[in-house]
Design goal:
There is one protein chain. The protein has 354 residues and is of the alpha+beta class. It folds into 2 domains: 173 residues, Aminopeptidase (3-Layer(aba) Sandwich); 129 residues, Aminopeptidase, CATH 3.40.630. 27% of the residues lie in helices and 27% in strands. The protein contains 8 helices and 13 strands. It has an 8-stranded mixed sheet, with helices on both faces. A hairpin with a 6-residue loop joins strand 7 and strand 8. The longest helix has 20 residues. The chain is elongated, with a radius of gyration of 21 Å. This is N-acetyltransferase domain-containing protein.
C-alpha cells in the first residue's frame, strides 16, 4: 500500500539543512529551473538569523515517509532524501500584508500526478497557516516564479487572483574575469569627458532605485536587497562624475547614479535600470557583466556543497518577460543564453480557491 503524502512545515532551515536541500535539488536533473529555490536556500545557508522583510523564509517539504514508531513526529533530520517529493519555502506575510508566498520545486523522478498532489497539499498547508479572519476572496498566496509544469496544473485547477506574463530563464555559467570591469574601476567618456566609476549601491541611492523600478517593490525590500549581506557583495552601481573630477579623490555624493543592477532575495538578477540621460552608453551591459562575475564568484565561494559533482554548476541567472526583445538581446550580448523549456510565471492564487 502506498504511503500517503504528508507536509512538513518548519522555521527557516539551519545552514546544514539548507545546504542539504539545495544539493538535493541541484542533482535532481531539472537543470537551471531549480535555481530560484536553490538561490534562496544558499542565501539562508550563508546568512543565519532572521531576515525581517524576506517574504519566504520558512521551510515546507512534502514527503512520502512511513509512520514513525511510537507516533514520533517526522523531522527534517529523520526524513530520508528519497522520501522528499517537493521542497519549498513559504511565508504568510508579504509587504506587511496578510498575503502568503510560496516557492517550490520537485525532487528527481517524480510523476506529474505526484507533483500536482504535493503542490495542492503544500498550498492547503500554507492556507492553514494564514490568519483565520482574513477575507479569503481578497487574500492570495503569491507564487513568485512558478515553474512549468506546476503552473499549468495550478492554472487548470484553481481560479487565479492575478497572473503575469510567462518569463524565460537566462543563465551565464561560463564567465571569465574582466580586469577592466571590477569594483573601483573607472573610465572617461570620450564624448562628454565624464568619468564613470564602478561602485556599490549606497543608502543615498535607494530613492533612485525605487523611482526606476518597474514592479511594486517597497522601500524595505529595496533596502534589504541592497544594504544587507550578501547583497552588498552582489550589486553594482555605475556613477558619473563631472568632467575633471577624479572619483579617487572626490566624495561619493559628487557621482551621479547612472545605472545599476540588484540581486533579488533568491540571488537572481533584477531591478536593472539606466537613468534616461545616461542611455545608449552600454552602461546596463557593463553592470550586468560586473554582477554576473560577483554572483558566480559568490556561488563558487559559498556553494561548494551544492554545485558540481553531478549537480548544476554555479551560475548567474535572471528572467525576461516574453516579448522583451531588448533585454533578451542585451543579456545574450553579455554571454547569457536562454534555457529552452525552462519558464516561470508570477501568479496569485485566491485563498478561497484552495
Amino acid at each position: 500500500m502506498s504511503v500517503p503524502l504528508q507536509v512538513l512545515l518548519a522555521k527557516p532551515p539551519t545552514a546544514d539543512e539548507a545546504f542539504r536541500l539545495a544539493r538535493l535539488l541541484s542533482i535532481s536533473g531539472a537543470g537551471p529551473s531549480v535555481m530560484l529555490v536553490v538561490g534562496q536556500l544558499l542565501r539562508l545557508a550563508v546568512v543565519q538569523g532572521p531576515n525581517c522583510c524576506t517574504p519566504i523564509d520558512n521551510l515546507i517539504v512534502v514527503h512520502r515517509s512511513a509512520p514513525r514508531p511510537n507516533g514520533e513526529s517526522v523531522t527534517l533530520a529523520t526524513l530520508a532524501d528519497a522520501d522528499m517529493v517537493l521542497i519549498g519555502l513559504y511565508g504568510t506575510k508579504h509587504g506587511g500584508m496578510d498575503e502568503g508566498t510560496f516557492s517550490a520545486h520537485p525532487t528527481a523522478g517524480r510523476t506529474e500526478a505526484e507533483v500536482n498532489e504535493a503542490v495542492h497539499l503544500a498550498l492547503a498547508a500554507i492556507k492553514a497557516e494564514m490568519p483565520s479572519d482574513v477575507d479569503k476572496d481578497k487574500t492570495f498566496i503569491m507564487f513568485p516564479g512558478c515553474p512549468t509544469p506546476i503552473v499549468d496544473y495550478i492554472v487548470k485547477e484553481m481560479p487565479l487572483h492575478w497572473e503575469y506574463h510567462h518569463n524565460s530563464t537566462y543563465v551565464e555559467d561560463r564567465v571569465k574575469p574582466q580586469p577592466h570591469l571590477q569594483m573601483g574601476s573607472s573610465w572617461i567618456d570620450d564624448e562628454t569627458g565624464e568619468t564613470f566609476f564602478i561602485d556599490r549601491i549606497r543608502p543615498s541611492d535607494i530613492d533612485y532605485v525605487i523611482s526606476a523600478k518597474t514592479l511594486e517593490y517597497d522601500q524595505e525590500y529595496v533596502e534589504f536587497v541592497t544594504q544587507t549581506y550578501p547583497f552588498t557583495e552582489l550589486n553594482c552601481m555605475i556613477r558619473a562624475f563631472p568632467k575633471g573630477i577624479d572619483p579617487a579623490t572626490a566624495s561619493t555624493e559628487q557621482g551621479d547614479p547612472a545605472a545599476w543592477v540588484v540581486a533579488h532575495h533568491n540571488l537572481s538578477s533584477g531591478l536593472q535600470a539606466t537613468r534616461d540621460k545616461y542611455r545608449r552608453r552600454k552602461l546596463a551591459a557593463k553592470c550586468i557583466k560586473i554582477t554576473t562575475q560577483l554572483q558566480i564568484e559568490f556561488m563558487r565561494k559559498h556553494g561548494a556543497r551544492i554545485f558540481g559533482n553531478g549537480g548544476i554548476e554555479p551560475m548567474a541567472y535572471g528572467f525576461v518577460n516574453d516579448g522583451n526583445v531588448a533585454i533578451a538581446r542585451m543579456l545574450e550580448g553579455c554571454g547569457f543564453r536562454k534555457v529552452e523549456g525552462v519558464r516561470f510565471k508570477w501568479i496569485g492564487i485566491k485563498l478561497s480557491s484552495i
